[in-house]
């Protein structure tokens, strides 16, 4: 049996690409799913202010701040008030530390608002 005929190769290549694309998009979407699941988006817009600041605004504010990811992960779990205004962000203790870190890194990676 000839295994390495061009058709088989092409097929393997396509399956490989499809799998790679799947993993890429799956991992790129995971934090958005976390944000949905934890109702972050009930108060935060991806870009603009709603109840709380838009995620793009947060990214803009802390761009170049190397400690922001760690600090914001803590604030996600402990809540926040007074940084953006007088509205309180309640503590989100249902979010695990690992998820809070993933969320804060993802928020800080949001592209600048236009
Ligand atoms: C009930 C509304 C509400 C919910 C739900 C909420 N937030 Fe907030 N969030 C706010 C408000 C209001 C602020 C501004 C607080 C302040 O001024 O200190 C804020 C601020 C933040 C900040 C910036 C803190 C800072 O120091 O600059 C981050 C990051 C954040 N929220 C992430 C999240 C994530 C992630 C979730 C979901 C797990 C979430 N928030 C859920 C209302 C909310």
Molecules bound to protein: heme C
Q: What is the rounded Rg?
A: 20 Å
How many DSSP helices? Answer: 4
Distance between the termini: 58 Å
Helix content: 40-55%
CATH topology term: Cytochrome Bc1 Complex, Chain D, domain 2
Structural class: mainly alpha
Whole-number total of structural domains: 1
Mean pLDDT comes to 87
The general outline is elongated
* N-to-C order of helices and strands: HHHH
Class in CATH? Mainly Alpha
Please indicate the percent range of residues in DSSP E strands (runs of 2 or more): under 5%
Mind summarizing the main beta sheet? Answer: none
The name of the CATH architecture is Orthogonal Bundle
Find the CATH superfamily. Cytochrome c-like domain
Uncertain stretches of 5 or more adjacent residues = none
Short description:
The chain is mainly alpha-helical and 114 residues long. Helix content is 54%, strand content 0%. Helix 1 (6-37) crosses helix 4.
Which descriptors would you attach to this protein?
Cytochrome Bc1 Complex, Chain D, domain 2, mainly alpha, binds heme C, elongated, 114 residues, 0% strand
